[in-house]
């Protein structure tokens, strides 16, 4: 992966990065699930508790956005690796 | 609001959020690494996708940090150690993107959270985040003339949906309470955040200095503003209640506060009441208690208690400085001027009048329904403030001077609308009569009237000496005696239910009195009882000495009395007397 500047990475490196980003997506998704579960058991009732729950849920949503974007990026890298392999690099 | 809470679980949640934050940071670090590498070697599509992922990671981490702070604050607050939390917040600025995080909450729930967690409210009030474009636009309106500003604010805020507007109120509470044209309900919500923030500040102070009666009273007052309802007991025996509806709350200095009493949805009349000398946040509950019965008396009436300016201090509100400081050049005069005889000067009215005029212009826009019939009343020094507002452009339907210090002007032509309906009431034995219509120029004749006849020859010298000692004598006095304003309707102060005369400077606020009913009638455009001055007489009893046989050790045989008005004749000595009435609704 540590190619000199201006030199395209090899197919193996692209696939390795794709795998790492896919792992990132899995991690973000897992943390989103954990956060949502814990916020549901926040120990605070009433409107203030509802507000806290809403805040936690919104952050969990943000983690799901991160997971989705990591997955898209992983897919884009895999696609680039595929194109590179077809062009013989 | 006090919610049921499991502090242990909240603390666990705070820990969990911290764990999630660390895991996301480490387990998605490859996203940040990929950006640097692929920018040089990746294809355009892959680069863009990785950049988006990196931006999402930054946002998620920022929100996790903010959430961790919020949960920790809530846990600490609910654990009853608010002062410690305040110290924590004070040492650390609001977390990044706090405003954006809070924006995700339902606005009603968010208001409850901010009120329940004063330390969090303090962090928000200290400078949270909102859309800078809207904030800039609204801030610029503060420079416009009042009526124009109010309309512009209403227009700008009207373009936001209600949720956005409420969010702005909760995250920019200081700005929202300054926007006189903003919807009242949004200003109420903003004020609650400011009260909660001030409660946080006071708790922090108590943590430093310990319990003190005055400080504890202030803390209790803030808690009442947040937690207690205003209870309106109606004439038919029913009660309604609503939360405190503050349009303004600012604890700086002596404090400023404006509150609406009553149901704005039902109200057809609006009355703005300006109290007098010494009106500060500490005395606010007393002024509020006087106004509640008016709002309760008629569901078609809403009352605004207005203290949105610095009223002059009551004598000795602040103790004199130590003798060595007092001996410095000008210090004694300054103390005299600001803390002993401040109410004699009209300069506080000079400043408060334009503020009142601006706020009333805002009420005309924001509360257009009830403000379509608008009365402004000033009690004591508040009368001079109302006069100043009239001289600075305020136009309303009716003005009432209640035991008023003065009309502020010497000629009604100096008012924006000279022909407005004006009313005045002053009890014949009210000491404010010593000041009404007088200023430093006639001090010699006033002193002569107030001193025993034997001291008459000294009066010019004493007056001259007083004018020489008192700073800025030209600024003393409050214009015309309101009872003598051209066209004014003088209202009868009358009697209490048991037949006693309404007396003194504040007797008219007893709800069983003729005076009180007259004030209510003006506010609701009802029927008033008009004073017949020809049936009353009084005289000024100068400074003197009373002697009598003592009845006990605590009853001195000799007592000095200050100059006072004595009522010699009243039509109410005839139990059947009824003052003539005037129906304002038919005028």
What features would you describe in this structure?
- The complex is a heterodimer of chains A (89) and B (587).
- Chain A is an all-alpha fold.
- Chain A has helices at residues 11-40, 46-86.
- The longest helix of chain A has 41 residues, at 46-86.
- The model of chain A is unreliable at 1-7 (pLDDT under 50).
- Chain B contains 21 helices and 16 strands.
- Chain B has helices at residues 7-27, 29-41, 44-78, 82-90, 98-102, 107-116, 118-125, 132-141, 146-158, 162-171, 173-178, 184-209, 213-227, 284-297, 323-326, 331-340, 347-366, 381-391, 443-450, 459-469, 514-523; strands spanning 229-233, 239-243, 245-250, 256-261, 269-274, 301-307, 374-379, 398-402, 421-425, 489-490, 527-529, 537-541, 544-547, 558-561, 564-569, 581-583.
- Chains A and B meet through helix 1 and helix 2 of A and helix 1, helix 2, helix 3 and helix 6 of B.
Short précis:
Chain A is an all-alpha fold. In chain A, 80% of the residues lie in helices and 0% in strands. The radius of gyration of chain B is 29 Å and the shape is elongated.
* Structural class category of chain B: alpha/beta
User: Helical percent range of chain A?
Assistant: over 70%
Biggest beta sheet summary of chain B: 8 strands, mixed
Look at the helices and sheets of chain A and give the structural class.
mainly alpha
Instruction: Order the strands across the largest sheet of chain B as they lie in space.
Output: 3-4-6-5-7-8-9-10
Q: Biggest sheet of chain A, in brief?
A: none
The unreliable regions of chain A are 1-7
Strand content of chain B: 5-15%
Q: Over the alpha carbons, how many angstroms does the gyration radius of chain B reach?
A: 29 Å
Principal-axes shape call of chain B: elongated
The radius of gyration of chain A is 19 Å
Oligomer classification = heterodimer
Terminus-to-terminus distance of chain A:
13 Å
């Amino acid at each position: 992966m540590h190619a000199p500047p201006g030199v395209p990475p090899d197919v193996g490196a692209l696939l390795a990065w794709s795998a790492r980003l896919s792992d990132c997506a899995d991690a973000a998704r897992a943390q989103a699930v954990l956060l949502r579960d814990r916020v549901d058991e926040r120990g605070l009732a009433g409107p203030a508790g509802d507000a806290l729950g809403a805040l936690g849920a919104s952050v969990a949503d943000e983690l799901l956005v991160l997971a989705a974007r990591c997955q898209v990026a992983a897919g884009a890298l895999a696609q680039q690796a595929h194109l590179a392999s077809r062009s013989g690099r | 609001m006090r919610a049921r809470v499991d502090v242990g679980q909240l603390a666990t949640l705070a820990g969990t959020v911290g764990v999630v934050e660390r895991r996301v940071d480490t387990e998605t670090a490859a996203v940040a690494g990929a950006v640097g590498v692929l920018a040089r070697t990746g294809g355009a599509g892959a680069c863009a996708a990785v950049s988006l992922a990196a931006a999402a990671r930054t946002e998620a981490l920022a929100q996790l940090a903010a959430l961790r702070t919020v949960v920790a604050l809530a846990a600490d607050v609910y654990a009853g150690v608010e002062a410690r939390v305040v110290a924590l917040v004070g040492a650390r600025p609001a977390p990044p993107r706090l405003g954006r995080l809070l924006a995700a909450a339902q606005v009603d729930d968010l208001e409850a959270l901010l009120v329940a967690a004063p330390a969090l409210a303090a962090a928000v009030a200290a400078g949270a985040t909102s859309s800078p474009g809207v904030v800039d636009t609204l801030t610029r309106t503060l420079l416009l003339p009042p009526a124009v500003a109010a309309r512009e604010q209403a227009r700008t805020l009207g373009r936001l949906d209600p949720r956005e507007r409420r969010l702005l109120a909760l995250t920019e509470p200081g700005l929202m309470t300054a926007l006189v044209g903003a919807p009242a309900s949004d200003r109420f919500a903003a004020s609650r955040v400011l009260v909660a923030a001030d409660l946080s500040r006071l708790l922090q102070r108590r943590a430093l200095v310990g319990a003190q009666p005055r400080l504890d009273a202030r803390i209790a007052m803030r808690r009442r503003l947040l937690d207690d309802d205003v209870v309106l007991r109606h004439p038919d025996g029913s009660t309604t209640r609503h939360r405190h509806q503050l349009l303004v709350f600012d604890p700086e200095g002596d404090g400023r506060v404006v509150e609406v009493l009553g149901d704005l949805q039902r109200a057809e009349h609006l009355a703005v009441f300006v109290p007098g000398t010494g009106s500060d946040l500490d005395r606010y509950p007393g002024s509020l208690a006087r106004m509640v019965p008016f709002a309760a008396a008629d569901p078609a009436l809403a009352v605004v208690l207005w203290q949105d300016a610095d009223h002059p201090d009551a004598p000795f509100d602040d103790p004199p400085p130590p003798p060595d400081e007092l001996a410095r050049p000008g210090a004694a005069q300054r103390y005299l001027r600001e803390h002993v005889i401040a109410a004699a000067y009209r300069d506080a009215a000079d400043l408060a009048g334009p503020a009142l005029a601006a706020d009333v212009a805002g009420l005309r826009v924001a509360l257009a329904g009830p403000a379509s019939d608008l009365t402004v009343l000033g009690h004591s020094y508040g009368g001079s403030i109302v006069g100043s507002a009239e001289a600075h452009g305020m136009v309303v339907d009716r003005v009432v001077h209640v035991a008023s210090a003065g009309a502020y002007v010497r000629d009604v032509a100096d008012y924006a609308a000279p022909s407005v309906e004006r009313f005045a009431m002053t009890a014949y034995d009210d000491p404010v009569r010593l000041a009404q219509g007088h200023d430093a120029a006639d001090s010699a004749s006033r002193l002569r009237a107030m001193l025993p006849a034997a001291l008459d020859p000294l009066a010019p010298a004493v007056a001259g000496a007083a004018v020489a000692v008192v700073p800025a004598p030209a600024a003393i006095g409050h214009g015309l005696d309101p009872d003598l304003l051209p066209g004014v309707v003088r209202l009868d102060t009358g009697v209490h239910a048991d037949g006693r005369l309404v007396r003194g400077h504040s007797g008219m606020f007893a709800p069983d009195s003729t005076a009180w009913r007259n004030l209510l009638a003006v506010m609701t455009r009802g029927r008033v009882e008009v004073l017949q001055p020809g049936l009353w007489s009084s005289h000024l009893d100068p400074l003197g000495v009373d002697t009598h046989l003592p009845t006990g050790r605590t009853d001195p045989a000799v007592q000095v009395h200050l100059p006072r008005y004595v009522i010699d004749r009243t039509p109410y000595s005839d139990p059947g007397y009824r003052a003539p009435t005037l129906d304002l609704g038919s005028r």
